[in-house]
Amino acid sequence: MEFFKLAYAIELDSGDNLKHFRQKFVRDDPNLIYLDGNSLGMLPEATAERIQNVITKEWGSNLIRNWNDGWYERSQQIAAKLAPLIGAQPDEVIMADSTSLNLFKLAYAALQFQKGKRAIVSDELNFPSDIYLLQGLVKLFGDRHELRLAKSHDNMGISKNEILNKLMDDTALLTLSHVAFKSSFMYDMKEITDMAHEKGAMVLWDLSHSVGAVPVKLNDSNADMAIGCTYKYLNGGPGSIAFLYVRKDLQERLVSPIWGWFGQKDPFNFRLDYEPADGIQRFLAGTPPVLSLSAIEPALDMMLEAGIENLRAKSLDQSRYLIKLFRHFLEPLGFSLGSPEKEQERGSHVSICHPEAYRICKALIDPDTGSKTVIPDFREPDNIRLGITPLYTSYVDIYEAIMQIKMIAEQKLYNHFSVKKEKVT
After folding, report:
1. How far separated are the first and last CA of the chain, in Å rounded?
2. What SS3 class is residue 80?
3. What was the pLDDT predicted at 201?
4. Which of 11, 86, 291, 360 has the fewest CB atoms found within 10 Å of its own CB?
5. Is the pTM value of this prediction over 0.70?
6. Which residue(s) pair with 163 in the sheet?
C-alpha cells in the first residue's frame, strides 16, 4: 500500500495497540483534529465523572468531613501515581502549587544551599517564564548571582559542549527544560546531570514538555530536583496543579522559602513557630486545590495502564510518519523542519517552520477552511507545533493535518487572515 495515501494511515491505525484509549476522551466534533495536547491535553471522559463525584458527594454531602476522608492525603496519593512516569520514588514527589512557584521554591532552596557560588546556568531555548523567575531570584538575592545562558547555534538545540562551557566551579545551579517548548529538543538527562555534578552544581529539571510523553528517569540520572505541570500530556485541565521532585537524600537539607501551613510538621497544632514537615511534604505551602488535584487521576490511570515505554514507542512511530509526510508534501512548499532529526534528541511534538506560520495556524483553526478543523499552536517567530499525544492522536489525524497544511500553503488561503496576533497564540 502506498505510503503517502490515506489508506496507509488507516492501516497504521488498525494495527495500533493503544487505539482503544482514543475513545476514552471527549470528542464531540468529528471534524476536529487536535494536535495541541503538548499545550493543553484533551478531557478524559472519566474526569468529568470524577469531578462530578468530588463536587456532589465529597464536597456536597461530606463537606469539611472529607478532609479526613481522603482530601488531606490526596497530594501524596496522586504524586505516588505520577512517580513511575518520572522514574522517582513515591516519597520523592508531591503535587503542589504551580510550575512557576515550584521552580521558585526549589531554585531558591538550591541557591541557599550553595551559598558562596554565584552562577546560575540555563539556556536560551528555555521557557521564558523559567528565565524570568531566575532573573527575579538574582534580584532577590541582591544581584550577587550571575545568570548565564547557553546559546543555540541552530535555534533548535543546545550542544553539550555549550552547556559544559557555561559550567564552572562557581556554578550553584543548572536548570533546564528537559524538552524545549519550541523545537522539542530533548537533553540527555543523565549526561547533563553528571556534567553539572562534576562541577559541583545542583541540577533542576523542568519536565513540563516531557512528563507523560517520554520516559523520564530522575533516579537513574541522579537528578537533584525537578518540577513540571500536569495540563499538557497529563491531561489535568487548564492551569491544573503542578508537581515537584526532590531526591530523597536532599529533602532534609533543603529549605523551602515559603513556610506554609501544609508544609508544617503538625499543621493542626496551630503553633506559631514553624517546624518543617518530614520529607517531601515540607515543600508544600498552602491548602491544595482539591478539584484540580482530583482531575489528574483518571489520565494518570490510563497512562499507567498503557505504559510510558509503549507511549514513547507510538510517539516515535507517529513522529517518523509525520516527518516523512512533511518531507514529501511540505518541504517543497517552503516549509522547514524545526525539530531535531535524531529521535533521541526529540520529545513528542514536531515543529515545522514557515514565514506565514501564524496565518497558516489561523487558517487551520478556522472551520470554514477545508474539510477539517485542525488545532496546532503557533510559537514565535515562525513555528507551527504539531503535538503528538499517543493516548489519542491517530495516524489519520496526522495525515489529514498535513494535507490541510499543504492545501492552505498551495492555495495561499492564509492571505484571508489578519497578521494581527491574538493575545493567546
Report:
1. 38
2. helix
3. 98
4. 11
5. yes
6. none
Residues 91-132 have pLDDT tens digits of 999 999 999 999 999 999 999 999 999 999 999 999 999 999
Q: Which CATH number fits the domain 48-304, given the four candidates 3.40.640.10, 3.40.50.620, 3.40.50.1000, 3.60.15.10?
A: 3.40.640.10
What pLDDT, in 10s, does the model give residues 316-326?
A: 999 999 999 99
- Residue pair 192/63 in contact (Cβ under 8 Å)? The answer is no
What percentage of the chain reaches a pLDDT higher than 70? Answer: 100
Catalytic residues: 127, 206, 231-232, 385
Distance, in Å, from the CA atom of 78 to the CA atom of 293, rounded to the nearest integer, reads: 8
Decide: 339 and 350 in contact? Cβ < 8 Å.
yes
Q: Provide the sign of the torsion angle of the four alpha carbons 413, 415, 416, 422, taken in this order.
A: positive
Kindly write down the DSSP assignment for every residue of 220-276, as one continuous string. HHT--EEEE-SSSTT---TT---EEEE-GGGTTT---S---GGGBSSGGG--SS--B
Fold of 6-45+308-416: Aspartate Aminotransferase, domain 1 (3.90.1150)
Check pLDDT > 70 for residue 1.
Answer: no
Write out pLDDT tens, residues 361-398.
999 999 999 889 999 999 999 999 999 999 999 999 99
